[in-house]
Amino acid sequence: MRIESTGAVRRKEAQIDFIEMIASPQIIHEDSFWNDRGDPLYDQAYEPNRLQARIDMLLRVGILKKYNQGPVSKTISKGTICYILQYKQVKGLIYSILPPSEWGFESLLRTGDESFLNFIIEEAARKGLALADGHIAKMGVSLSTPEERDVFDVLGLEWVEPQKRIHKRSEEIGIF
After folding, report:
1. What is the DSSP letter of 28?
2. Do 50 and 35 fall within a single domain?
């Protein structure tokens, strides 16, 4: 499983209202080596993927809670589910990334602020690309963006450090 911070934490902002992360969970197949049968929590944790299984278990034992009595998860796109959780007094969003969603595309979207995202959307449209279901497509064909740098390459843009993916700083580097 791969998991990384995104949002304000990754941009290294001084004021962080909630934690955002993206994760690419391992799928558990009943006959798979990775099905956790040796795990003492196997009976409690078996689910279609390890991330969902662990979140469900942490909710059951009270370590995590639903945020603000809302839903625990929300489908964002065909391959992306957002878990809306609370740990102690901290709100957390965990985006589970499964195909057809692409890690690089989702990571870029979840790291930039709204102004930066609008810029990315406008650049994609200007180049005839569609942003849907967690990936970039050209004429209906999904383009491979396993890492953020791949998204910048597809869009023909220079790399922008995560800390600079906010409107104020983005103006300074000349992309707005």
Report:
1. P
2. yes
Residues 127 and 60 in one domain: no
**What is the model's pTM?**
0.77
Instruction: Measure the CA angle with vertex 95, ends 28 and 52; round to 5°.
Output: 30
Question: What is the residue type of 51?
Answer: L
121 and 165 part of one domain:
yes
Tens digit of each residue's pLDDT, the chain (176 residues): 788 999 989 999 888 888 999 998 766 555 544 444 444 444 433 346 778 888 989 999 999 999 887 788 888 888 888 999 999 999 999 999 888 788 999 999 899 888 898 889 899 999 999 988 888 999 989 899 999 999 999 999 999 999 888 764 444 444 43
Same-domain pairing of 51 and 74: yes
CA dihedral 36, 42, 45, 47 (to 10 degrees): 60
Q: CA-to-CA distance for 173 and 33, rounded, in angstroms? A: 48
Q: Do residue 91 and residue 124 come from a single domain?
A: no
Q: Determine the distance from the C-alpha atom of residue 159 to the mean position of all C-alpha atoms in its chain, rounded to a whole number.
A: 19
Instruction: Give strand pairing partners of 135.
Output: 132
What is the spatial distance between Cα 151 and Cα 137, in angstroms, rounded to a whole number?
Answer: 11
